[in-house]
């Protein structure tokens, strides 16, 4: 099993649906795009030079969102931000 597959399994366990695709940008460079979304409206799209890089970034933003939600729910912090990386 590849490391990005482990990250994808962990995302699924935490309630995220995900997808990935390879594409060519306007300069002819290959990029890997991963996205994660949940039923509560959260949706993140990240890109990188490698599939693993994209999934590592997706894992980071989904964990950051979960931490922000916990902070908001427990009133530790009244401010939070959701980051969508395109």
Main sheet properties = 3 strands, antiparallel
Could you tell me the strand content as a percent range? 25-35%
Tell me the total number of β-strands: 3
Report the total helices.
2
Could you state the order of secondary-structure elements as H and E? HEEEH
Derived structural class: alpha+beta
Shape: globular
Strand order of the largest sheet: 1-2-3
Q: Can you tell me the CATH class? A: Alpha Beta
Terminal CA distance reads 27 Å
What's the architecture in CATH terms?
Answer: 2-Layer Sandwich
CATH structural fold name: Double Stranded RNA Binding Domain
Q: Average pLDDT, to the nearest integer? A: 80
The count of domains is 1
Unreliably modeled segments: 73-86
Proportion of residues in helical segments:
25-40%
Structural features, described:
By secondary structure, this protein is an alpha+beta fold. The chain has a single domain (3-73), classed as Double Stranded RNA Binding Domain, CATH 3.30.160. Helices cover 40% and strands 26% of the residues. It contains two helices and three strands. The chain has helices at 3-13, 51-73; strands at 17-24, 30-37, 43-48. A three-stranded antiparallel β-sheet has the order 1-2-3, covered by helices on one side. α1 (3-13) packs parallel to α2. The longest helix has 23 residues, at 51-73. The two termini are 27 Å apart.
